[in-house]
Amino acid sequence: MSLSAVEQSGDSEEEFSEASKFGSRWWYYIAAYPIAGLFLTVVTSLLSPFIPAAIAPITQALAAITGFIYVLGFPVLGIALFLDARGIRASPLDWSPNPYFYGGTALVLLGASGSNGPEKQSLATKFVGEAASMVLPLLAIALCLYYLSRRHQHLGES
C-alpha cells in the first residue's frame, strides 16, 4: 500500500505506521507450510495409482519434495512462529502470544521427528517411529492453523 493510497483512504500516516509496526511477514511462511505440504500430499496420493510404471519416478519425486517440505521446513517453521509471535507480543495489541511456546513446540516436533534411535530396533519401536513420522507433520500443520486462526482473530487480515 503506497502512501497515496493511505491518503486517499482517509487514514492518517501515523495510523498506517502504527499498524505496520507489528506487521511481521513471517506469517506468510506459517501459512505456506500447511498449504504446500497438504497440496503435495494430496497430489501425490491421488496421482500414485494412476501413473504408469514408466513415469512412476514423477510420483517418487513429488513424494520426495513433500518430505523435503515437511522435514526441512520444521526448523524454519519454528523460527517463523517464534519471530512472528515475538513481533506481535511487542505490539500494543491485547493478544500477547508466547513466542517460546509456539517456536518451542515446532522445534520439539522437529526433534521428535528426527529421533530414530539406534539402528537395531524392535518391530514395535520401528512401527511407533514410522507412525510418528506420519503424525508429526500433521501436528505441525495443526499448530500452524491454530496460530493463524488466533492471529486472524486479533489482527484481522494481516
Structure description:
By secondary structure, this protein is an all-alpha fold. It contains six helices and no strands. The radius of gyration is 20 Å and the shape is elongated. Residues 1-20 have low confidence and may be disordered.
In terms of topology, how is this protein built?
Blueprint: H1 3-9, H2 13-21, H3 27-47, H4 56-89, H5 99-114, H6 123-155
Helix pairs in contact: 3-4, 3-6, 4-5, 4-6, 5-6
Task: Describe what is shown at a glance.
The chain is mainly alpha-helical and 158 residues long.
Keywords:
elongated, disordered N terminus, mainly alpha, 6 helices, 0% strand
Determine the number of helices (DSSP H or I, runs of at least 4 residues).
Answer: 6
Strands, count: 0
The SSE string, one letter per element, is HHHHHH
Structural class: mainly alpha
Low-confidence stretches are 1-20
- Judging from the principal axes of the Cα atoms, what is the shape? elongated
β-strand amount: under 5%
Q: Round the Cα radius of gyration to an integer and report it.
A: 20 Å
Number of domains: 1
Transmembrane segments: 26-50, 62-83, 127-148
Keywords: Membrane, Transmembrane, Transmembrane helix
